[in-house]
């Protein structure tokens, strides 16, 4: 990793020097001391969730070992919980990212779809990675994909009605017999762990007729799209592959049984639920509480409900939420701000309007980037590099929401156009741990320049900070940092501002350059941050 411009610009602050894309260099083996694992994402002070993968990681089966070998490095960087990619076999075998689900029971143990290992490694390596993260005090979330299945072992003839892919309630013709890939027998597993086999009755529809080689969307005979889903395309129950009929009693029972088996087998602490807007809301409101009851685990859970409509997200959460949600409206604002290219095309004062962290902060998981928003992906909305440090400051240093850091932003993504790491990100993560405490004061009052401060508290020596962000011109703003800091000298640890002295009334004027980020902190905090970085260097 590398730092600056700002107080930490010296190469001596870098652990082992930047990797090929400027990120932290990871090690291959590590001895760790076991720490207690919190039961929820918010148990630690200022928690940080790390998404532990990118879309284009090499398909070499080494990722679980990489994580296990570097668990202590991740904890030292400030990670308190980690979202791991899907652990089960996808229909493309070792090349599958994990979202083309084939066999939930094959965690890299059976010779299926051309390999034993998944893209990330074997079952034993997955379990070892979970244990290593636990030993480092990190909560582990597993990625769960229930919406669809792909790569069936055989076809079946099914009577189905063709519907308009752009309006699933619009029937295009009479029922017809199609040949659908809907029979899953898992011959490589041969009944191990479960003898449940899947046929067309376990699904609602599909998008391919093998007999005629046609694409489309077909609703199977006797089935109906679930009403408690997103209303895009009329009804967004169907997404891809063979659409799982989650309200079918046999399917629901099998998935409940699988959930208990998976948690007992792997030891993970919580879940990330994929594509929840495509799944009837009632399913998870039954499945998740029952899983908590049968396992006795708190199971902190984050759902992916991809929309910019805050009302839809609040309706999904309901009055008694059973999970948190990723703040996709806030990500969208980061994306729009970054697309202004420093020309003031986005009103920064509206950054938090109608976001989950504004409306329901206790259920907000904030993020800047994820695997789906990367260039070339289905939900591409890549936050441009010039704005990423500012976006991360807005989720890491504020007092609401649990921030989720993207693996590619922390370590770089050489596989995706050689996109570099966010050089200020490790320092921002350390600042979250050491400085981001106490009351917050917002100055989100200008289209082109916004800021906020944290006063710090007695439990965290030299804590407190001031952040100023511009998306166009250089600017300055007077902000309150608290009378506890009166007369102190504060320094600019990110940015190019001069040292400032806090006035007797607890206010200070700080500055920011064109289209930039400034982070100011008490001068005594620089020693704390420096020691933290030196510790990180030794860990690396």
Structural class: alpha/beta
Please tell me how large the radius of gyration is.
24 Å
Average of pLDDT: 90
User: Based on DSSP secondary structure assignment, what is the total number of beta strands?
Assistant: 25
Strand content: 15-25%
Compute the separation of the termini in Å. 10 Å
The profile of the biggest β sheet is: 8 strands, parallel, barrel
Catalogue the unreliable spans.
1-22, 27-39
Q: Specify the number of helices.
A: 12
Estimate percent helicity: 10-25%
Shape: globular
Name the strands of the widest sheet in spatial order: 1-2-5-13-14-15-16-17
Explain the overall architecture.
It is built from 12 helices and 25 strands. It has 540 residues and is an alpha/beta fold. It has an 8-stranded parallel barrel. Strands 6, 7, 8, 9, 10, 11 and 12 form a 7-stranded antiparallel sheet that branches. The protein has a 6-stranded antiparallel sheet with strand order 18-19-20-25-22-23. Strand 7 and strand 8 (167-171) form a beta hairpin. Helix 1 runs parallel beside helix 3, helix 4 (249-266) crosses helix 5 (281-295) and helix 11 crosses helix 12 (523-539). The longest helix has 18 residues, at 249-266. The radius of gyration is 24 Å and the shape is globular. The protein starts with 48 loop residues before the first strand and ends with a helix. Residues 1-22 and 27-39 have low confidence and may be disordered.
């Amino acid at each position: 990793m590398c730092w600056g411009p700002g107080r930490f610009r010296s190469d001596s602050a870098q652990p082992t020097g930047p990797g090929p894309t400027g990120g932290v260099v990871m090690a291959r083996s590590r001895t760790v001391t076991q720490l207690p694992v919190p039961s929820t994402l918010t148990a630690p002070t200022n928690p940080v969730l790390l998404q532990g993968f990118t879309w284009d990681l090499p398909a070499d089966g080494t990722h679980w070992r990489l994580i296990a070998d570097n668990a202590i490095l991740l904890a030292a960087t400030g990670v308190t919980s980690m979202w791991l990619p899907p652990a089960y076999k996808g229909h493309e075998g070792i090349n599958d990212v994990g979202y083309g689900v084939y066999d939930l029971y094959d965690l890299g143990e059976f010779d299926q779809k051309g390999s034993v290992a998944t893209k990330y490694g074997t079952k034993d390596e997955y379990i070892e990675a979970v244990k290593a993260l636990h030993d480092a005090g990190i909560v582990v979330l597993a990625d769960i994909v229930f919406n669809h299945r792909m790569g069936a072992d055989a076809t079946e003839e099914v009577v189905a009605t063709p519907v308009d892919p752009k309006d699933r309630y619009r029937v295009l013709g009479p029922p017809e017999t199609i040949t659908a890939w809907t029979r899953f027998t898992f011959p490589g597993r041969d009944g191990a762990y479960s003898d449940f086999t899947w046929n067309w009755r376990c699904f609602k529809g599909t998008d391919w007729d093998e007999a005629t080689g046609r694409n489309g969307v077909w609703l199977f005979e006797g089935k109906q799209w679930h009403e408690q889903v997103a209303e895009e395309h009329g009804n967004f129950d169907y997404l891809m592959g063979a659409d799982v009929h989650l309200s079918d009693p046999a399917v629901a029972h099998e998935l409940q049984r699988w959930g208990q088996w998976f948690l007992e087998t792997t030891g993970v602490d919580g879940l990330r639920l994929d594509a929840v807007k495509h799944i009837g809301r009632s399913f998870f409101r039954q499945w998740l509480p029952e899983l908590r009851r049968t396992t006795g685990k708190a199971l902190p859970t984050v759902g992916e409900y991809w929309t910019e409509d805050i009302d839809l997200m609040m309706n999904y959460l309901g009055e008694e939420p059973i999970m948190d949600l990723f703040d996709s409206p806030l990500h969208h604002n980061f994306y729009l701000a970054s697309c202004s290219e420093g020309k003031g095309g986005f009103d920064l004062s509206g950054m938090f309007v109608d976001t989950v962290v504004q409306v329901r902060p206790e259920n907000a998981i904030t993020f800047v980037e994820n695997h789906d928003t990367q260039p070339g992906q289905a939900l591409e909305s890549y936050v441009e590099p010039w704005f990423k440090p500012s976006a991360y400051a807005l989720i890491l240093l504020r007092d609401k929401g649990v921030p989720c850091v993207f693996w590619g932003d922390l370590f770089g993504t050489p596989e995706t156009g050689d996109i570099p790491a966010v050089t200020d990100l490790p320092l921002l993560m350390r600042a979250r741990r050491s400085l981001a405490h106490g009351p917050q004061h917002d100055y989100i009052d200008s289209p082109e320049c916004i800021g906020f401060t944290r006063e710090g508290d007695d439990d965290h020596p030299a804590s407190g900070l001031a952040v100023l962000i511009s998306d166009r011109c250089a600017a300055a703003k007077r902000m309150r940092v608290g009378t506890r800091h009166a007369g102190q000298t504060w320094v600019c640890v990110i940015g190019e501002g001069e040292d400032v002295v806090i006035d007797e009334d607890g206010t200070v004027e700080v500055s920011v350059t064109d289209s930039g980020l400034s982070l100011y902190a008490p001068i005594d905090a620089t020693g704390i941050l420096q020691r933290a970085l030196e510790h990180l260097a030794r860990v690396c």
